[in-house]
Amino acid sequence: MIKVLLAFSNLLFAEGIRKLLEGSEDINVIEVLKPGADPSEAIERLRPDCVLVDFTTLFNVFGEPAAQANKFILIDTSCGEDNIISAVLTKGLKGVLVANSTPLLLKKAVRAVAGGEIWLDKIDIKNLLMGLHALKKSTRPALSEREREVVNLVGQGYRNREIADKLCISEPTVKTHLQRIFHKLDIQNRPQLITFAIRNQTDSQGT
Q: Using CA atoms, how far apart are residues 192 and 3, in angstroms rounded to an integer?
């Protein structure tokens, strides 16, 4: 029997997932955590075969060691592919499932991840591989203070217009900074930059 722990920021959503998994002969939802609850005790006590989470819970509640040590499946609630790829790369996710997937696919994903496989539903593998390339970089090229500010904001999920507003600069200037950052870091797209920002925790103090 596959033991599944549910940890979502929305309890109604979690209960809906539990209902979808009910009736499976080989899947047992052993507990539904309350939103924001510390999962450490439940994981230690219940030893789940996989943990189903949403993006908010994954980043606000679970630390990286917990995610790396357990078989996590992220059920995407429209957080965007850039953030999903970053979660796969930085949190050690074993599976990703879009929120409008069928109950059949949900069960297949649980069985696959519990069995030691990887399940990535509708994720751009090219962008994922590019993100892995960014993670392998062992050095941090010198960025200007403004470039580090831009990297930080991109890593927090802000779009170009929002970055321009926060830094009191024009949107074309933001794009120019991004072009220079991509060149310095030898990366090609936004998912890679988000991954770099999260992994390296770029700050305004310099490199």
A: 34
Q: Assign 122 a pLDDT band (cuts: 50, 70, 90).
A: low
Q: Would residue 187 count as lying in a domain? A: yes
pTM: 0.60
| N-term to C-term CA, the chain | 49
> How much of the chain, in percent, has pLDDT values that exceed 70?
72
**124 pLDDT above the threshold of 60:** no
Q: Say if residue 46 is in the same domain as residue 83.
A: yes
- Both structure tokens of 60: 């606000």
Q: Give the per-residue pLDDT at 120.
A: 77
Q: For residue 128, is it within any domain? A: no
- Domain hosting 151: range is 139-200
Q: Return all residues near 132 (Cβ < 8 A) that are at least 6 apart.
A: 89
Q: Look at the alpha carbons of 34, 94, 50, 15 in this order and tell me if their dihedral is positive or negative.
A: positive
